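Work package 3, deliverable 3.1, input record:
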Amino acid sequence: MQYLMSVIDDGTGPATPVEDAAIDVFNDRLQTEGYWVFAGGLGGPDAATLIDNRGEQAIVTDGPFLESKEYLAGFWIIEAADLDVALKLATEGSRACNRKVEVRPFL
Amino acid sequence: MVASLARRFGDLDLAEEAAAEAFATAVERWRADGVPPSPGGWLTTTANRKAIDRIRREDKRAGKHQEARLLYDHDPPEPAGAIEDDRLRLIFICCHPALGVDTRVALTLRLVGGLTVPEIARAFLVQEKAMEKRITRAKDKIRTARIPYRVPSAEDLPGRVSGVLAVLFLIFNEGYLATGPGTDPVRHDLTAEAIRLTRLIRALMPDDGEVAGLLALMLLTEARRTARVSAAGELVTLDEQDRGSWDAALIAEGHRLVRERLAAGVAPGRYQILAAISAVHTSARDVRDTDWSQVVALYNQLITLDPSPVIALNRAIAVAELDGPEVALAVIDRLGPRLDGYHAFHAARAGLLRRLGRGQQSRAAYGRAIELAGNTAEIAALTRRRDQLG
């Protein structure tokens, strides 16, 4: 089963070299042990563009969908047997990237 | 039965509903036809059949595969060990850390304790619909996020057991000092349920020290239940309780457990120390016989494990008996900033101030305590003490 582990930044900004190194080690582990599906860091909210094409005309807005202090900084998609496994990995991931990590199952 | 159904079908919701339907059918049928020779077997077979019917109705796509597995999966009658393992798994899933504490309490009472939703709602002063939603959301989360139905691994077990014990202790405390103007001040149904569930865990994990400690603590506390509320509906504190009305059998069992843990020679955890403190109190025939230096020594041990201000407060109350109210008041006052919102802090201050003859300050402290207290019997007792100051 797949889980999304979202890295939440609360305004601290990009990863430090120490954090980067720890993230690399963590990513290697995920790949070696077969949990890795995909992962990546995201450009900050300033680099975001919002599209709303639900109405007559598409509306393009500069900025993120939600103005907030906390935002999504990156994520991992992992394959894990159950939530216990996912939480163990997320625990390591949170320590490695030094941020809060939200774990959500794919449907 | 819910536990073994959950294991077999991997779905808590389904297990619960199938069990309920089986019981309902049993009530109808047995009234007409009499109780069958093997009621347990009848119920299990019926519940299994009802679960299969449900799966058939609800899941046509993957249904064929699942059905085949279920119909031809002829499990022999469960040996006792396997049933107990199922119940253990059920408790651990209800108390999973991914669920909020309120949710764990509600789920445990519903699925392990078998309380109805209205009963649980009443216990925690929540609307029935809100409690129903809480439980439904929890089951949905268990299914969608795939919270596993199993006993935790050896390395995870200590942390997970402590989570279970915390839930059981919450249930007990709510029964022992119930909050809210509409409820009984002491709710025997909840304390009895908490004890029953803790006994279940103890039977499943007989070597765990904190499980034994929590059971001992509950028994020694429950033993004093009838002495705790006066005929006038006031909470009676330990020093004023009629010790003759304490339950000797529960006290004996509690003491036995405490001695057993002492003999084990393992450093005691929180519940074991709290139980030992209770054991010291319940060993004294009269409050004046209480070995207060033992009590303080135990609190000193406890505070190194749990430096919470509430423990410090309770320790100070014992210190008052050894070193006098002035020393104790000084200790308690230092806790002011952290405990200002806690009624027992103000009640303790009020009592010490009264003993020191500082009537006006005592009165004010009782007033604060009354404002903050949530238990009807406690409010009555505090009100009387304040009024006695004149």
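The mean pLDDT of chain A is 95.
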